[in-house]
Amino acid sequence: MAENDSSQERTEQPTEKRLREAREKGQVARSKELSTLAVTLGGSAALLVSGGILLDMFVRVMKACFDLERGAMFDPRSMSELLVGAGYSALEALVPFLIFLFIASIIGPLGMGGVIFSWQALAPKASRLNPLEGIKRMFSAKALVELIKALAKFGVVLAVALLVMNSQLTELMGLPHEPMLPAMLHSVKMVGWSLVALSASLILIAAVDVPFQLWDHGEKLKMTKQEIRDEYKDTEGKPEVKSKIRQLQREMAERRMMAEVPKADVVITNPTHFSVALKYDPEQGGAPRLIAKGADFLAFKIREVASEHEVIILPSPELARAVYYSTELDQEIPAGLYLAVAQVLAYIYQLRQYQAGKGKRPQSLGDLPIPDDLQHD
Q1: Do residue 40 and residue 114 come from a single domain?
Q2: 53 domain residue, yes or no
Q3: 244 lies in a domain?
Q4: What is the 3-state secondary structure (H, E, C) of 177-233?
């Protein structure tokens, strides 16, 4: 029972498949504080940059709206043109400011989680309409963290606001003594720098929230050991299925290998435990190739096929073991075995000549030169 309980604990890091599926569902780490910081800081910078343009637009619109001829006030067409012109001037002045805000609103999400669009995240969910689920979220640990963040944000912003007001109190008290237009421009700058200071105070909140959101997202995606095993089975297949596939692959490979045995020049045996079939093609050049090899029952099958197709079988235990362990299928034999295999092929050629009645019977092969590093017991 304890084993089952421990196996259900989410202690394993998420797999690549789990992370990919979560991203497809729109589940990525996001920080509202980072987005808020980007928008407020971007808006404050935009106000500083475009504050003069906005003020100039405001003055022009006010002059156009209040400096009217008496006849224009009773002309609906003139009033409509005045309204459209004021709206156009306001839009023209607000465009740079709105572009700043738009860019800032994109930079925030890009800074954490990147660009993502998921239809699954947009799909309606019954749990979102369930009042019980809503109450649970209200009294959850996440809601408590959000409350603490809100209080901390309020405290930090309030403290910075008081410091800013205190530092600008002298300038603020001097505004009534300035001419109207310079005072208005001075006010815009003061508001802009104040907003920059207040926005910068949110850096502290974001610096705490971003690591927390990354940690919280990672904890939500953690998996149990059983989930890891289930995913492995789904992606790699069940062990019994994989075993059956490997068995079929081995059988197919053995059938292909057995089809090559009749093409061999010689089959060298242990004589019972190992069998290797070699093929040499003078036209292609290179060294002799290993076209079949096997141990025990497979070695017996190679000898059996070789006998059926009148391929010469030559007992040479040391050479058979050396070729078996040093050479893979369809590869050339190593350079250290060139001399030994050359003697074998020369012997096979002389034996075939003798069997065709064109020469003397060759003398049996003696000890073949096998390098020490290629010998196997």
Answers
A1: yes
A2: yes
A3: no
A4: HCCHHHHHHHHHHHHHHHHHHHHHHHHHHHHHHHHHHHHHHHHHHCECHHHHHHHHH
| Residues 166, 264 within the same domain | no
**Per-residue pLDDT tens listing for the chain (377 residues):** 344 444 467 777 887 888 777 777 777 777 777 888 888 888 787 777 777 777 777 777 777 666 766 666 666 777 777 777 777 777 777 777 788 778 877 877 776 766 665 555 555 666 566 666 667 666 677 778 778 878 888 888 888 888 888 887 777 777 777 777 777 777 777 877 888 888 888 888 888 888 888 888 788 888 888 877 777 776 666 666 677 777 787 778 788 888 888 888 888 888 778 899 998 888 777 788 888 888 888 888 988 888 888 888 888 888 888 888 888 888 888 888 888 888 888 888 888 888 777 777 777 777 788 888 777 76
Identify the bridge partners of residue 65 per DSSP, sorted by sequence position. Answer: none
Domain that holds residue 173: 16-118+141-233
Flag whether 246 is in a domain: no
Q: Quick one: 155 and 298 in the same domain?
A: no
For residues 242 and 234, is the Cβ–Cβ distance under 8 A?
no
Token reading at 236: 């790699």
Number of structural domains the chain divides into: 2
Residue 272, domain CATH: 3.40.1690.10
Phi/psi at 278 (nearest 5 deg)? Answer: -115, 145
The pair of three-digit structure tokens given for residue 62, joined into one six-digit string: 């006010």
**pTM to 2 decimals?**
0.43
